[in-house]
C-alpha cells in the first residue's frame, strides 16, 4: 500500500491510526474519545497500533477535521470543504465539526444561498432550509441554472418550482379591485380616501406589471405594502394599511417572512419560502 504520513497530524506519542485516502494520521485515543467517540466504534486491531479506516473522505478533509478537534489549531470551514466536513460529522457523529459547519452556514448563507440550501436539505437542517429557501425563491429563475439546484432531490426541486409558479400566477392576477373592493371605510370622507388609495395602488400595480420578467417576490412585497400617505382619514388609513391591505396581500400571495437575521432591522425585506416540515 502506497500510504504516506500526514504532515500535520502524525503525533509520535499517538496511540491510534486513522487511515483515509492513503494517508495515515497518528492521533490520541483520549482526544477522539472526547471529540468523536463514535469513530472509535470503527476501531480495528493492527500490527502495532489499532487503526480506523475512513472510506469516501479525502485526506485533506480529515486533516481539517483533526485541526478542528485538536486544541492547538483554530480553523473554520470554507465553501470548498463544508460539504465534506458535514458528511464526516454526520456519518461519525463528530459534534464539534457539525457545530462548526452549521455555524459557518448560518453566518454565511447569504453569500451562497443555492449551495447553502442544497446542504440544508442534504443534512436535514430545518431552520437553514427555510431561511435559504427565501433567498433561492426570490431569484429562482437564476438559481435553477445552478448545479446545486440540479443535485437536489426531484421532490424538492418541484416544491421550489411550485411555490414560485404560484407566485407568478398571483402577480398575473394583481388588480386594484382585489385590494379595495371590500374595504369598509371608517373615515369621514370615504369617497375621497378611496380615490387616493385607488390612485396609489393602481400606480403600484402597474409598476409591477410594467417590469420585465422575473420581478422578485421581495420587491413585489415592498412595493405593495409600503406605507401610503393620505391627506385625511389617518385612522382609517392606518387600519387599511395594517389590517386590510396586508390580509389581502397574503390571501393572494401566501405567507411572506423576513430572514431571521434581519428581523430586528427597521424595514426588513420579506420573502416567500418553503419549509421542511410538511405537517
Ligand atoms: Zn377611509
Automatic annotation (TrEMBL):
CDD domains with a match to the protein in the record: BTB_POZ_ZBTB_KLHL-like
PROSITE patterns registered for this protein in UniProt: BTB
One Pfam family hit: BTB
Domain of life: Eukaryota
Domain BTB: 14-78
Protein name: BTB domain-containing protein
Originating species: Rhizophagus clarus
